[in-house]
Amino acid sequence: MTKEMTTDCRGVVIPEKRTFFTADLHWGDERLHLFHRPFKSAADFVSKIIENWNNVVGPGDEVYVLGDVVVDLDWLEYLKLLNGTKHLVKGNYDTFGDDLYSEYFTRVGDEYFIDIENKEGDGLPRHVHLVHYPTKSTPDELNLVGHIHQAWCVQKNMINVGLDPWHFTPVSTEQINLCYKQICG
């Protein structure tokens, strides 16, 4: 008996365990106008993020948050409402100490190099660099970054996975692969 596979709207098979990326949550930051975020309050913003996140991320999925999680520690508890196993790449607002973040994230670091899933021979990179700051990107790698909010979405070897350009929703590996094909294909 074979297991039925799930596909997206383009017919691409969606793996059982998926990987997602996001950045720049800034939970607890009432300065929504600075980032052109169309919400009445920080609480409204967080509610929308939780809804969007849990609509795409399942309990068994992995999510890499590329920095700037909270600006107010009172908002950390809300991370427990988010599906998936979470990993943190620290950003400029993530200064409360690794021990504190380790309660909410499986791993906490300044950068990661990971392999992402894609089809054999499709020309996509398997190895990607995850870092908060675009200025700390690696020239010969595909870099997934945050920090810049909606300033840009893609560069030659970088994809901004921040919440702002992705409609306040984590970005899937499938979306990363599609973006990469469009900018480098």
Can you offer a commentary on this structure?
- This protein is an alpha/beta fold and 185 residues long.
- It contains three helices and twelve strands, in the order βββαββαβββββββα.
- A five-stranded mixed beta sheet has the order 6-5-4-3-12.
- Helix 2 links the parallel strand 5 and strand 6.
- The protein is globular, with a radius of gyration of 16 Å.
Class inferred from helices and paired strands: alpha/beta
Strand element count: 12
Low-confidence stretches: none
Q: What is the general shape?
A: globular
- Kindly report how far apart the N and C termini lie: 37 Å
Radius of gyration, CA atoms, in whole angstroms: 16 Å
**Helicity level:** 10-25%
Number of helices: 3
* Assembly category: single chain
Kindly estimate the percentage of residues that lie in beta strands according to DSSP.
Answer: 15-25%
The order of strands across the largest sheet is 6-5-4-3-12
Q: What can be said about the biggest beta sheet?
A: 5 strands, mixed
Q: SSE order in H/E notation?
A: EEEHEEHEEEEEEEH
Average pLDDT reading = 85
